[in-house]
Amino acid sequence: MSDERPLPEVAWFGALCDDDYEQLGVADPAMRSSWDHCRSIATAADRNGFDAILMPSGYALGIDAVAFTSAVAPMLERIRPLVAVRVGEVWVPQLARQLATLDQVLGGRLLVNIISSDLPGETLESEPRYRRTLETMLALKQLLAGQPLDVHGEFVDLTLDPPRICAERATAPPLYFGGLSEAAKETAAHAADVYLMWPDTVVGVGEVVADLRRRAAAHGRTMRYGLRIHVVVRETEAEAREAAAHLIEAVDEATGTAIRNRSLDAASAGVARQAELRDGADGDGFVEDHLWTGIGRARSGAGAAIVGDPHQVRAKLDAYRAVGIDAFILSGYPHERECDRFARLVLDDHPHAPLPS
């Protein structure tokens, strides 16, 4: 790569939320999230040289991200776990203590993905939910940086010294955060270190990056930008397209709708944008060269994949990087096998580097 920007961070996906299949929509008990299955994915990503691995979090499905990462941490030699936490489920001072402890276990390699979630059993309107998220992020950053709190907000009302394990820290782990609604974008601009996006066209991603740069600048801040997207890579383009078609050939419209509606974020602005991409795709599901939306027929959230041979996949990643993406969170089905395949075909020849400690 010819420019002077830092090399991109390339991460894999931990599949902790019962989201692993040979074919989407076809349940396989051996691939349900479990200690054994997810440990194999995490150690494969570490072995294959990925910079980070997203440990996703959901209430109803899968296993707990923090507990799992604590257990697997001693088995990971260099990779940086990006641990998702659902805002509001744990009281802020205890969450800070928990994450600082996990960061100590990891030798300072922790990354944190903030999820602006409802509490289980609660439904909070979008605007107040993001106000709660912002207050929590700001308080969490202070505590994790070892600074005392004296805040009196709508949701966080505390005068409190940090716990000792936080007070010994010099800096807080980076906070990753995403969302396409106005409230989500403003929350990110105010408090996130890395703004995460779901798949979009190259132009669409560039527009969102430009928008968030303006918003962050209004708060006197800068951020990095990340893209969460699937990949289907094979030695030839024809093989990649065949593999993509095979992945969803067992999914009919009713099954796909039921799968998407299981997600708690099924009505979010981000999910709506994924549906728009599918609606604008051609008969094979491609909305632009090598960006395939078929995967979104059978999952909520990130609903598109880069499909092609190694050269085409690398070129697509570079195209996203050219419009501002600094970090990629990639995944493929099934996750352990595709982790090995992507590393062999793409990662070994694609310059990347971990975030500085």
Short description:
With 357 residues, the protein is an alpha/beta fold. Helix content is 39%, strand content 17%.
Task: Please characterize this protein's 3D structure.
- This protein has 357 residues and is of the alpha/beta class.
- It has a single domain, classed as Luciferase-like domain (TIM Barrel).
- It contains 12 helices and 13 strands.
- The strands form 2 sheets. It has an 8-stranded parallel β-barrel, surrounded by 8 helices.
- α3 (92-105) packs across α4 and α6 crosses α7.
Structure keywords:
two-stranded antiparallel ribbon; alpha/beta; TIM Barrel; 12 helices; 357 residues
User: How many helix segments?
Assistant: 12
Tell me the CATH superfamily: Luciferase-like domain
CATH architecture descriptor name: Alpha-Beta Barrel
The biggest beta sheet is recorded as: 8 strands, parallel, barrel
Just give the CATH class: Alpha Beta
| Coarse structural class | alpha/beta
| Strand order within the widest beta sheet | 1-2-3-4-7-8-9-13
Number of domains: 1
Mean pLDDT across every amino acid position: 91
Q: How far is the first residue's CA from the last residue's CA?
A: 23 Å
Approximate helicity band: 25-40%
Order of helices and strands: EHEHEHEHEEHEHEHEHHHEEEHEH
**Estimated radius of gyration:** 19 Å
Query: How many β strands by DSSP?
Result: 13
**Low-pLDDT runs:** none
| β-strand amount | 15-25%
Task: Briefly note the CATH topology name.
Answer: TIM Barrel
